[in-house]
Amino acid sequence: MSVIRFASWGRVSTEDRQDPESSRAWQRARALSLIEPHGGQIVAEFFDIDKSRSIPPQRRPEASRLLTALADPARGFDAVVVGEPQRAFYGNQFGNTFPLFAHYQVPLWVPEVGGPIDPDNEAHDLIMSVFGGVSKGERNRIRVRVRTAMATQAQIEGRYLGGRPPYGYRLIAVGPHPNPAKAADGKRLHALAIDEPAAAVVRRIFAEFLAGYGLYAIAEHLTRDGIPCPSAHDPGRNKHRCGIAWSKYAIRAILTNPRYTGRQVWNRQRKDEVLIDVHDVALGHMTKMRWNEADKWIYSDEPAHPPIIDDGTFARAQELLTARRGGPPEHKPHRSRHDYVLRGLLYCGVCGRRTQGHWANAAPYYRCRFPAEYALANRVEHPLNVTLRQDAVLAPLDAWLAGKFEPRHLPATIDQLAAAATIPERAQTADEDDTEARIAGCDRRLAQYRAALDAGADPASVAKWITETEAERARLRAFARPATPRPAMTREEIELTVNALADLLAVIRDADPPDKAEIYTRLGLKLTYQPAGQIVRTEVNMMNSAQHWFFDGVRGGT
């Protein structure tokens, strides 16, 4: 009897629900019991761990590797065996995957048909489709049971069901897990306890809101007073956030969180599975978190943790939020479209951010608005508003560009650009050395602060130090020189690029605003406005080469 070389194909969902090694062993044993009487032996294995069955095989790492190997004549195996089809196929995945096996003439063996699947056998196709439906139904039943159990635990027991604790609370262990198996693994139940410094801030937020202050004003007050925002207060659980200052969204999240009344709340959000590509359903779904309507939230029957505010205060805050939100606005006639020729090209020289278009006094302006409290948190001396009028820039900019690219000046312009492209990399200046040293000093201080936090230092104080140091580091890094120099263009490349733009720049004064904006973009234009000296620094970035100029005495800026 000739030996048939097989590749085994399997999958296990999550390590905490089932041991991957034992799952792999019994799936392999089941596959061997099918192929050994036919002289088969397993020479390769494709086993996905911690991958849901709902993910199509094309998106599972090991299954995808197997499907890719089918096209390789030197793949090293003659057939594929599946220990349990429900592990490999879900819903209509068999119909989307098996044609690849048939195309490359690689038999697929499953125990349920007693051997290889016959592509021309309708009974085999029906059996595999049934197993795909069974797999989908089993997953849906598990999901319903789990969600029902969690809803009951939240409503009747008031159990804390995971996730980050709300700002104002901290987690404490309250005993062993009620599930004996999980308790044997050392898992414990947790509950929310009041974090007094943060709880005082929560009470202040509700008090100021009910006193008539808006969300933005409250955020500015807290930042001005040096109170760490939620992500700075607990940086270990908020590594994905910068923690620079309070935002109005953080204030709104606190004002709308019913957990502050002492009751456990569950099902505020849900996981929806949406198609990755509506034009290619075989790619499967992706999970998105979405908010549920308030009437679908599950509240505990009794208080589950100490309240920070009372029910009446929370109810008044919700009424005020609803009243301020108001009903749907009446439809107003669309305003005429304003043309911002420098949209996306003009930057603030103080903070480095892009300016925003701002229509005022029947003219286009560009504005960078930076509240005083936010500037303080970022250690930036920034005016409340940096404003520049568009027509103060366009006239000198267009005249200069048209002059530089007119025929009699074109050779000299090309020479200047070529010279700029061939300038050797300059040495590190003393100022840049100092900047890098200061960044390194920030890194050392951050490491010391985190060590102090681990050693039991006051979290509020340490979080404030970390926030200040990270803001300083970000500011220094923003003005540091790029780590890698840009490759230079050849003179021929520069000449081709300049000649292509010369005709456009010759008529730039009379171009329509949309056409003018496109020319500026193609030129690689970047403008940086320095309000202190009313100077616009202009950078023309032709592919990878740059040339810099200055416009003096720009009017219309504040």
Radius of gyration from CA coordinates: 32 Å
Low-confidence stretches: 481-486, 544-549
Distance between the termini: 90 Å
Mean pLDDT: 80
Work out the helix count: 18
- List how many beta strands DSSP finds: 18
Percent of residues in β-strands: 15-25%
Strand order of the largest sheet: 2-1-3-4-5
Helical amount: 40-55%
Biggest sheet architecture: 5 strands, mixed
Provide the descriptors you would attach to this structure in a database record.
43% helix; 18 strands; 18% strand; alpha/beta; 4 domains; Rossmann fold; Hect, E3 ligase catalytic domain fold; 558 residues
Which helices and strands, and how do they pair?
Elements lengths: L3 E9 L7 H16 L4 E10 L11 H9 L9 E4 L2 H4 L4 H11 L4 E3 L4 E2 L5 H36 L11 E8 L3 H5 L3 E7 L1 H15 L4 H10 L5 H4 L14 H8 L9 E2 L2 E7 L9 E7 L6 E2 L11 H15 L20 E3 L7 E5 L2 E7 L2 H6 L7 E5 L1 H14 L5 H13 L7 H25 L4 H20 L12 H16 L6 H11 L1 E6 L4 E8 L2 E7 L7
Parallel strand pairs: 1-2, 1-3, 3-4, 12-16
Antiparallel strand pairs: 4-5, 6-7, 8-11, 9-10, 13-14, 14-15, 16-17, 17-18
Helix pairs in contact: 8-10, 14-17, 15-16
Can you tell me about this structure?
The protein has 558 residues and is α/β, with parallel strands linked by helices. The chain has four domains: 4-139, 3-Layer(aba) Sandwich (Rossmann fold), CATH 3.40.50.1390; 169-264 and 300-325, Putative Large Serine Recombinase, Chain B, Domain 2 (Hect, E3 ligase catalytic domain fold, Alpha-Beta Complex); 339-425 and 485-558, no CATH class; 428-484. Helices cover 43% and strands 18% of the residues. It contains 18 helices and 18 strands. It has helices at residues 20-35, 61-69, 85-88, 93-103, 122-157, 180-184, 196-210, 215-224, 230-233, 248-255, 311-325, 372-377, 391-404, 410-422, 430-454, 459-478, 491-506, 513-523, and strands at residues 4-12, 40-49, 79-82, 108-110, 115-116, 169-176, 188-194, 265-266, 269-275, 285-291, 298-299, 346-348, 356-360, 363-369, 385-389, 525-530, 535-542, 545-551. The strands form six sheets. Strands 2-1-3-4-5 form a five-stranded mixed beta sheet. A hairpin with a 4-residue loop joins strand 4 and strand 5 (115-116). Helix 8 (215-224) packs across helix 10 and helix 15 (430-454) packs antiparallel against helix 16. The chain is extended, with a radius of gyration of 32 Å. The termini are far apart. The model is unreliable at 481-486 and 544-549 (pLDDT under 50).
